[in-house]
Amino acid sequence: MSAATGTLYGLGVGPGDPELITLKALRLLKAAPVVAYPAPDHGTSFARAIVAAYLSAEQEEVPIIVPMRVERFPAAAIYDAAAERIGARLAEGLDVAVLCEGDPFFYGSFMYLFERLAGRFPTEVVPGVSSVMAASAALKRPLAARNDVLTVIPGPLDDGALSARIEAAEAFAIMKLGRHFSRVKALIETLGLLDRCAYAERVSLPEERLLPLRDVSGEAPYFSMILGYRGSEPAIRDADLCREPLR
User: How crowded is residue 76: how many other Cβ atoms within 10 Å of its Cβ?
Assistant: First the structure.
């Protein structure tokens, strides 16, 4: 590696509240001459919006346009092109900070840049507050205790896979609900766990919603989550599981 090579930083910027960015991520963000981030082909980048107040006009911005489609798209080509552009800046000796909602390695898109660039350039990953931890804090519900198994489950899984993972865990978090919400809620009701689950939406943002799962109907956004508990820890099992709507 050249002594002039820049460093690639994967920065976790948290679930949405700009104050939930770590001091380290903020320091590196402000110092980076180049800032890259995922962005939809329509609308604004959520990751950039989180840190917008911390960016300066002198920083070069590299949006990574990711089409928001239900069907699969050529993601490899998108990250190949982004890696080439970012790699060119790193080769020039410029540090590049790549923003990632939540944590870079927890379902984070940064992993796809990491696999393409980490072998060629110095790389540092800065962890961030994940949406699971933020939802637990907002709901005032501990996630797990002692020997509880906490399972994080993607909502798009089919019913059989969802059931198996829920029934194998004492505690669970179901993410990426979106258009799958009604189906997932119905499955949880079938399992007899509706009253053991809470719902969180857009956690840490002004439009945050926190409700008992049974009180939620209709569609849910992508940035929503269900937290449930099947274990025996009294501090969690006997807690007020959002008996009343919070927001």
Answer: 10
- CA–CA dist 211, 201 (Å, integer): 9
Buried b (16+ CB within 10 A) or exposed e, 35-71: bbbbbeeeeebbbbbbbeeeeeeebeebbbebeeeee
List Cβ neighbours of 44 (8 Å cut-off, separation of 6 or more). Answer: none
Q: How far is the C-alpha of 185 from the C-alpha of 220, rounded, in Å? A: 11
pTM of the model: 0.90
* Calpha distance 216→198 (Å, rounded): 9
- What is the mean pLDDT of the segment spanning 62-72? 75
Closest CA to 101 of 23, 181, 45: 45
Among residues 49, 28, 40, which one has the least CA distance to residue 96? 28
Model confidence over 126-157: pLDDT tens digits?
999 999 999 999 999 999 999 999 999 999 99
Tokens of 183: 């189906």
Q: Which strand (E) or helix (H) includes residue 123?
A: strand 123-126
